[in-house]
Structures are given as C-alpha cells and as structure tokens.
Design goal:
Length: 525
C-alpha cells in the first residue's frame, strides 16, 4: 500500500483491497550473538499460559549489526537482521530472519524509548516506516523515540513466504457463482501454499509476530515498547498488549479491527456496513444533483446505480481496457461509497461509459505481489479456524446476497482457509486494561466504526477518538488519503509525548477536503 502518495484505485487488485508495499524492503545483515540488556518474557494471558517458554538468550541477547540501509537512503536510516524462532513454543528448532530498521531519536536528552510500527495488511511491509514517520510525525514525537520498523515474519525481507500463485490465483473471486470454480480456486491456493511453504506456514501468525516484537524489544534493551499500528496493525498491537501487558507503554491504534471478529467475520462485516454508507451516498449525491446529475432524489440516485449494475450484467461496461460486469461494478464501488465524492465521480464515469461517451482511462494497477497475498492468507488462515464445509459458504453467500445486495455474496464467499491446515494455537482473546488510544473515522470502509468499538470494548483501558463524519481508512500521521484530522492527530501526539490518555472518549469534526478516495491497503490496511 502507499500512504506516502495516496491515489484512487478504481479497480482493486483484490476484492478485499490491494497489496502494495510502502517501498521496497531492504535486507539487513544477520545479527551476531553478544550480551545485551534484557528482561524475561511476560506471561501469556490468552488462556494458554505456559505453552510458550522464554526465548533462549541466543535470541534475546543478539546484537544488531546496524548498517546503512542503502546507498540512496539517509545515513540515519539503519537496518539489521535478527533471528527469531520459527515456533516460539519450541525455540530450539528452526529460525526465521526478522528484518528491522531504525532512525534514532532526534534529541537524546529527551529520549523516552522506542516506537515500533506496522502499516497494516496482513502482508504489509514495514521496514521503511521510520523514514516515512520521520517526515510525517512532529518533532515532539521523533525527538523522543527511536523509530523502529520491521517486516513481519513471512513478509518482505523477513523470510518471505511465496506460494507460487498465478495472477488469477491471487484474486479473491468476486461472486459466489459458479461456486464449484470458487471451491477449486480455494483448494488450489491452499495446496500450493502447503507445498511451497511446508512447516513454516503454520507459524506465520499474528500471535508469533507479537512474540517477535518482544524479542526485538529485548534485543534493543528496552523494558517496554510504544507502538503505532494502522488497520491490521491494530490487531497486532492488541495481541502484543494481551500477551505482554507489562511491556506495552504508549500504544496508538489507527482504524481498528474488532479482535472478536478475526478473521472471517471481519470480511463479512463489510456487507452490512456498506448498506448505510450507500444510503448516505445517495442522499449526498441527490443533494448535489446539479454537479453529478445522477438523480434528484435518493431513490433516483440508487436506481441509477442499480441500473448500471443490471446493464453491466447484461453487457459489460467498457472503460479503456477494462470490461466491467455487474459484480465488478459492485466490487469497485463498495469502498468508494464511504467517500461520497469519489463514489459520485466514479458512478458518473461508468454512466458515461455505458452510454458510449469518452471517459478517462482507469489507472492500471500494479501486479499483485505473490508474497503479499501468500502472507495474507497465511495469517488469516493461521490465526483462526474457519468453517470446513464448503457448502456453508455457499449457503451464507446466497442468504447474505439477499440481505445485503451490494456486497453480501462477496463478503461470505469461500476462502482458502477451508482447506488450510488447522491453526496450531487458538485465536488470542483480547481482554486487558492496557492504556491504548484508538483513532477512528466514522465512515471507514475497511475497518468500520463498529469494529473500532469492538476493539474499544476489548481494551478496557483504552480511550477512543472518533472523527464525526470522517471518511476513509486511516486518520493520523499520513495514514489518511486526504488531510490528516488535526484534532485526532494532536490527541495522539499529546499521548505519545506526555503519556496522558484523554479523561474520556473524544469526538472530532471531520477535516474539510477528505473523502476523495482512499489509499490502497492490504485487506485491512
């Protein structure tokens, strides 16, 4: 995904969202073993205490071989590579590489500690986030923290997983029909990943990435870490806080996942959540009929859209080299309906194209990286068990298509998890009192407001900042597609600098100028 230069993608690379890296990861050198200050791992509070022994000193006492990440990057941006156990429950076995990076605090006298970060995903690389946040975060933050980036296990430069998927196999089917073909797709992806990744696959989980973070904390000689995570990164942060509550310092979660919905139900929540967004869009577009001419009442606007869907089902709408079916139209527009201007503009383009009028070319999306998609399914299928009966997905899709016409059939469709090996550990139950700040737009297509409220309930020591009428996925420090919401960002900065959460939840007004499309994110961010 690219937060640095957000742009609208009219054709998502996946029905769930594009897997696009912030920037190419840079491989660091292998760390060497040497004494290093460290503390013992905290208790696993997920209901499986005692299953994960303390990592041996050979992991926690590594000394990173810091070096300049690249000839074309600043000297202050340094990289290294650590070793982490493949299976944290059996740390004497195989290992994985963990590519890490840092930019040291700008003011050593005011330095507080380290600020780790994750850009989202699953499957998003994070090695160059220190470079990005050094530009996006105020000096009040960058003076106090070493900015620490890393590619999660299985991603980018951290022992990447690649299932050898063809371009078509990297696409989640956009319709549950024909269902037999979708079942064959899901089985093929699962079989290829099992064949290519073997025993590694089962350990590419959020839970293990959180454990890697704690080894990184020990290697850096820190008693605690602070953290900024966006989208999927909020799930990772919440799991870390659950496993290591005494090690979590100041955690900011931007655009939050509901930890109780990981992962199939997080996909399925998109179907009911887009329906009110669609109605809101129809009202807004009717009120701007003079500009968009899509209907003068909400009912007329809705009829215009569904007319285009029906037309595309009969005869695909041609836009440049793209031929869009009705399912394609629904897939493209689901995300856009949360940002009303973007949706109105796009529906106008499709209307003109259907009428044979010249329209702008759709942007050509980059090829989906095999690693991004492979890591995505590894995490989603490895974190939590999914129903094993393919027929369950067909029944759910048929029912949800009737209940939620825009996206119900998509959201309940079959995934490779049906044919994945069962997770080796249970899903981490998030239920703790770690002080955390949650930032959330009201109209977020990927992690909707209801999901953030679920995270808020799970993190009982949290405070939540809601941007009233805020649109798009991402709120602060360059995560938003449009201007950052200053109220929400200032609240986050104050917390990172002073350590004081707001006394109660905060509501901010939306920043004018947002809502013109979203940055592309891996599935949740």
């Amino acid at each position: 995904m690219s937060h640095r230069a957000p742009r609208r993608r009219l054709l998502p690379l996946l029905a769930l969202g594009a897997t696009v890296a912030l920037a190419p990861g840079l491989v660091g050198a292998t760390a060497s073993a040497a004494p290093r200050p460290h503390t013992a791992p905290a208790t696993d509070r997920s209901g499986t205490a005692g299953t994960a022994p303390a990592p041996p000193d050979r992991f926690t006492r590594q000394t990173p071989d810091w070096h300049r990440c690249g000839a074309d990057t600043p000297a202050a941006y340094q990289c290294a590579t650590l070793k982490v156990p493949l299976d944290h429950r059996a740390p004497g076995g195989a290992t994985l590489d963990l590519a890490i990076s840092r930019i040291e605090a700008g003011d050593p006298e005011r330095r507080r500690g380290v600020l780790l970060s994750n850009p989202g995903g699953p499957g998003g690389v994070g090695l160059d986030l220190p470079l990005y946040f050094a530009e996006q975060m105020p000096e009040a933050v960058t003076d106090r923290y070493d900015l620490i980036g890393f590619d999660p296990r299985g991603v980018g430069a951290s022992s990447p997983v690649n299932c050898g998927l063809t371009e078509s196999e990297r696409q989640w089917p956009r319709n549950y029909r024909p269902f037999d073909r979708n079942v064959a797709w899901a089985r093929t992806v699962a079989d290829k990943c099992r064949e290519k990744a073997g025993a590694t696959l089962a350990h590419l989980t959020t839970r293990n990435t959180a454990r890697d973070m704690d080894i990184l904390r020990a290697v850096l000689g820190e008693k605690k870490i602070s953290y900024f995570g966006v989208s999927y990164g909020t799930a990772l942060g919440a799991v870390y806080a659950q496993l290591f509550p005494g090690r979590a310092d100041r955690f900011v979660l931007d655009s939050a996942v509901d930890p109780k919905l990981m992962w199939r139900d997080m996909f399925r929540v998109w179907a009911p959540e887009v329906e009110p967004a669609f109605r809101r869009w129809a009202r807004w577009t009717a009120a701007h009929a003079g500009r968009y001419d899509l209907g003068r009442t909400p009912a007329e606007v809705r009829a215009t859209f569904w007319g285009l869907v029906e037309r595309a089902d009969r005869d695909p709408i041609v836009v440049g080299d793209a031929k869009l079916t009705g399912a394609d139209v629904r897939a493209v527009l689901r995300r856009e309906f949360f940002t009303v201007r973007g949706a109105a503009e796009l529906v106008g383009v499709l209307r003109d194209a259907a009428a044979g009028k010249p329209v702008p070319e759709f942007p050509t999306p980059p090829e989906i990286p095999d690693n991004g998609v492979s890591a995505l399914w590894a995490v989603v299928c490895g974190d939590a068990a999914s129903p094993r009966d393919p027929g369950r997905y067909l029944r759910d899709s048929v029912r949800d298509a009737a209940r939620y016409p825009l996206f119900g059939d998509f959201a309940s469709n079959i995934t490779p998890c049906v044919f994945w090996d069962a997770p080796v550990e249970p899903l981490t139950r998030v239920d703790n009192e770690v002080g955390t700040l949650i930032l959330q737009n009201e109209w977020d297509s990927q992690t909707p407001l209801s999901a953030a409220r679920g995270m808020h309930r799970a993190l009982k020591g949290s405070r939540m900042v809601t941007v009233d009428e805020g649109e798009g996925h991402g709120v602060a420090y360059g995560m938003a597609a449009g201007p950052a919401n200053r109220c929400a960002q200032d609240t986050a900065t104050s917390y990172l600098v002073n350590g004081r959460l707001p006394g109660k939840d905060v509501t901010c007004r939306a920043t004018p100028g947002t809502g013109r499309g979203e940055a592309a994110h891996p599935v949740f961010g």
